[in-house]
Specification:
The structure is a single chain. The chain has helices at 24-39, 43-63, 75-86, 90-96, 101-108, 116-126, 130-145. The protein is an all-alpha fold. It has a domain at 43-146: lambda repressor-like DNA-binding domains (434 Repressor (Amino-terminal Domain), Orthogonal Bundle), CATH 1.10.260.
């Protein structure tokens, strides 16, 4: 098996030993190297990076346990980001995943429950784990219902244990 030899540019910048800040010269060097490197990327690489950026934001959102009702990010919001990056209208996307755009809108507005079939289609289309799309729905539903969580206190097995 032939081993590929890869060459890497060295863009490392050391911190000054006596301070936690970078010098203006080092900051400018890093900035110029980043700009030069970005110019070498193909349109496909740029698109892939944008898609990965949205996926990363999804992961961060799902991992954040301190989201409040005012900070909700819905499936619709993430879908809009993906479609904007891909420069694709909703109608074309819905045709690509074989669903009528009117039905898709009902799922996105919460009039219908987002299901595993849609999650699979979204996941494959956007190269994201399908469970992210379902987890978004579950997380948001729980956040919206959290103010009513005391209503569920009566459902506790310990109240039914004979002592």
């Amino acid at each position: 098996m032939k081993k590929l030899k890869r060459e890497y540019e060295d863009y490392s910048v050391d911190f000054d030993s006596n301070t936690d800040t970078w010098s203006d010269k080092k900051t400018e060097l890093l900035k110029n190297n980043a700009i030069a490197f970005a110019k070498t990327r193909t349109p496909e690489q740029k698109l892939r990076n944008q898609v990965l950026s949205i996926r990363f934001r999804m992961e961060q959102y799902l991992a954040n346990e301190e989201i409040s009702e005012g900070q909700l990010m819905t499936q619709e919001a993430f879908l809009k980001e993906f479609l904007e990056v891909l420069e694709m209208p909703l109608r074309r996307f819905s045709a690509a995943i074989e669903i009528q755009d009117s039905n898709l809108k009902k799922y996105l507005k919460g009039e219908r429950v987002f299901n595993y079939d849609l999650a699979m289609k979204f996941g494959h289309f956007f190269h994201t784990p399908p469970e992210y799309w379902l987890e978004l729905q579950i997380k948001n539903m729980l956040i919206l219902k959290s103010d009513k969580s005391q209503d569920y206190n009566k459902y506790d097995y310990e109240k039914f244990i004979v002592k």
